[in-house]
Design a protein that fits this description.
The structure holds two protein chains of two kinds. Chain A is an all-beta fold. Chain A is 0% helix and 53% strand. Chain A is built from no helices and twelve strands. In chain A, strands 2, 5, 6, 10, 11 and 12 form a six-stranded mixed beta sheet that branches. Chain A has a four-stranded antiparallel beta sheet with strand order 3-9-8-7, with no helix packed on it. By secondary structure, chain B is mostly beta strands. Chain B contains one helix and eleven strands. In chain B, the strands form two sheets. In chain B, strands 2, 4, 5, 6, 9, 10 and 11 form a seven-stranded mixed beta sheet that branches. Chain B has a four-stranded antiparallel beta sheet with strand order 1-3-8-7, with no helix packed on it. Classes of the chains: A mainly beta, B mainly beta.
Chain lengths: 115, 119
């Protein structure tokens, strides 16, 4: 079975500074990895995914994430944070085996970007 | 592309009534749809998974007779909360994954959610 850990409940950064939201995963096979963002009272918006290929994945709104197989991590990063990036971020993993519908989410990390 | 809509966005009902929530994939065919429940400041809890034309697969602890799921077409799934009680009050989010391009087969896309309040 797969699982995801987001070790930080809360991340605070100043506007203009780089941000990192951490995620580690556990999966028996090869993973599909995802990042989603949720604004208050809204559903989840897809940010980016790692399926195969380059370990550095670029996504929406200037976000990127690096797949690190040895460390089983998929940390979300952005070089320069904006106040509007403040939201709840979820990392998710799915086993790459065919027809696997079981996607597991982390507990979420609340990012606050202060002006 | 890959837009999922949900209706209604917010519903308030009396205890004992039934509420139907619709989830539609607007620009792709959703071979698989998912229903989640989210409690305040918590992660998503998967309730059930449904494939078009098949019965839904419910997660352990989710009452299938209370949460009726119908995935009648490749673009529509409905969740009906039957005989709702205050403890059913929550944020319900649907998600869809589809056939077609890699964009929709690999990735789940989420609806905007439905806030259910049972008085």
């Amino acid at each position: 079975a797969q699982s995801v850990a987001q070790p930080e409940d809360q991340v605070n950064v100043a506007e203009g500074n780089p941000l990192t939201v951490k995620c580690t995963y556990s999966v028996s096979g090869n993973p599909y990895l995802f990042w989603y963002v949720q604004y208050p009272n809204r559903g989840l918006q897809f940010l980016l995914k790692y399926i195969t290929g380059d370990n550095l994945v670029k996504g929406s709104y200037g976000f990127e994430a690096e797949f690190n197989k040895s460390q089983t991590s998929f940390h979300l990063k952005k070089p320069s944070a904006l106040v509007s990036d403040s939201a709840l971020y979820f990392c998710a993993v799915r086993d790459r085996r065919r027809n696997n519908n079981d996607m597991r989410f982390g507990a979420g990390t609340r990012l606050t970007v202060k002006p | 592309g890959a837009v999922v809509s949900q209706h209604p966005s917010r519903v308030i009902c009396k205890s004992g009534t039934s509420v139907k929530i619709e989830c539609r994939s607007l620009d792709f065919q959703a071979t698989t749809m998912f229903w989640y429940r989210q409690f305040p400041k918590k992660s998503l809890m998967l309730m059930a998974t449904s494939n078009e034309g098949s019965k839904a697969t419910y997660e352990q602890g989710v009452e299938k007779d209370k949460f009726l799921i119908n995935h009648a077409s490749l673009t529509l799934s409905t969740l009906t909360v039957t005989s709702a009680h205050p403890e059913d009050s929550s944020f319900y989010i649907c998600s869809a994954r589809g056939g077609g391009t890699m964009k929709t087969t690999d990735t789940q896309y989420f609806g905007p959610g439905t806030r259910l309040t049972v008085l």
